[in-house]
Structure formats: C-alpha cells, structure tokens
Amino acid sequence: MRRKRVLPPTVLILCTAALAGTAPAVASPLAAPAAATPAAPLRILLTNDDGYNAPGIRKAFERLTAAGYDVTIVAPLTNQSGTGTKMMSAPTIAVKHPEPKVWAVDGTPGDSVLFGLSEVFEGHAPDLVVSGTNFGPNVAGLATHSGTVGGAVAALESGVPAIALSTGGLAVPDPTATVNAMGPTMDFAVKLIDRLRTRARSGPLLPKGVGLNVNHPVVGADGKGTAAGVAATFQDPQAPLQPDFTDSGDGTWKVDVRFRPQPAAKGGDVEAVNANKIAISPMNADWNAGPAEFAVTAALVAGVRP
Fold first, then answer.
1. Short-list 97, 46, 47, 49, CA closest to 70
2. Does the pTM of the predicted model rise above 0.90?
3. What pLDDT shows up at residue 192?
C-alpha cells in the first residue's frame, strides 16, 4: 500500500498557519500608501474523479466562478472513482469540449490534469488545481486509492499547487444529504483559497510540492449544517475497506468489500470528520517515508553486500 511521507514540522506549520487567521502586521503611519492594483483573477483547473458532469464538480464550478476565479473544468468523461494515481495507460486518448470552459477527457483524473496542463493551459500553468468536490470521503486508506486525490497528485508532480476536496463521513452516505453538504464544502473551499492567496501575496499558494487533502463532513440530517471547526490533520493509517473473497469452485472468486473501520488515530483525518470538523491534511506527490523510517531502513541494510 502506498504510504505518504510524513511532512517535516516546518511544512505542517506553514499549512496550519495558512488556516490560522493571524492578523497582518500594521503598516507604519509614515509609510506612503501603496497604489491599489486590481489582482488578476486566480486561474483554476478544476477536475475530479466522479466525471465532468457530476454534481460535486458542477457545484465547485458554480461557487468558484461566483467568487471571481477563472475556472476551467478538465475532468474525466466518465466516473473514475477509485483509480488512484493511474495515468497514461493508453496510446491515444479521446477528448470532448462540450461547452465553453469545459473539457471532458476519456481517461483518469491524472490523464485529465496532464491534458489540461499541457494543452488547455499550454505555456501558462494555472495558479491552482482543485480536484472535487468528491461524493464521499477520502480519509485514511480511502485517500491512498482515491482518484480525487490522484488528480491533485498529478498536479503536484507537475509543480502546480493542488487541493483535493471531498464531502462525506465514514458512515454510509445519504445521497441527498451528501449533495446538500457540497454547498457548505465549497463555501469553505472559497474561504480557504482566499486565505491562501492573501497569505501568499504574489508567491505560490502553498509550499513547494505540498498539496492539501480537505475532507468536509456531512452535518445534520439534511447535510446543510455547519461544521464544528477546522483541524490540521494527518492521514489516518487505517484501511477501512477490506476485501472478502469467496471461491466459486470454477476458477473464479467472488469479491465482496466489507466496511470495517478501526478506532480513529488521535489527530488524524478520521477523528476530525467523526467530530464534524473539516479535516485538512498536507500531502506530497512522492512515496518517501520520513526521516525516522529512513534511519530504520539504513540500520537494517547496514553491512549488506551484493
């Protein structure tokens, strides 16, 4: 199973500070006021894994556009849930352009992002890639195999800041409540992106190579409730989906997937979403473990000769 590298404390501090609401320093009364220059609209490539016409990505397009961002959808033509980081597995790819600002790629979220960066945004990369909002959560082991997260990872690999957005908790989702909760999810996403842009000023929105995996809970029976808070988290190491194989006796096996959540890790994304908080986990695009794991590996292989 793919394991995410534990980010160094400095990166965690930077990501947490972007959410903290620290007041800016007060300018000297003797300083000449800066000329007001209208900021160019933030350019966003919007993708997902549920398909270019899914309710989550359409709600995202609506809210992000209303917030003044320049948004272009480059997303899978069909549902690609669970495809993870898969990309470039075919020699050709079909692409449709069904309406202005919308491109539908007959491939994975990673394929969509790569097509968007190389063709739709050729020569002028977007300021941010937003993947989602996904129908259902992408916490714990679900994130490792998520196409929503995979789209964000493809952007990070290309050097573009990225945010993965998901709506839902580990409980069996109610479709109507989950779709309703996509509104609060995108309201928060706009606030988050505005905060990142304000703190970044003219620089990149996030530290180099770092993306955010954002999971918004479904609050209330109708999904329209307000989250209890925001938590900077890590990806819970548990894998809540477990396979169950049954031998059919003819060389084939029936596969059933059981939902078996484990106790939530303290400080992890599952704990936060279970408490109706928005979980924000920093992530990167490589598979490196942290310094402690590297030290253990170095000790294990010390003295081994070919």
1. 46
2. no
3. 96
In angstroms, the CA 229 to CA 167 distance is 15
Token reading at 203: 């620089």
Distance of CA 249 to the CA centre of its chain: 41
**Amino acid in position 158:** S
Tell me if 134 sits within 8 A of 49, measured CB to CB: yes
Residue 299 phi/psi, 5-degree rounding, is: -70, -35
**Tens-place pLDDT, residues 212-230:** 999 999 999 999 999 999 9
| SS3 call for 150 | helix
Residue at token pair 């989550």: 56
End-to-end CA distance of the chain: 27
Strands 128-135, 43-47: pairing kind: parallel
Per-residue pLDDT tens over the stretch 101-128: 999 999 999 999 999 999 999 999 999 9
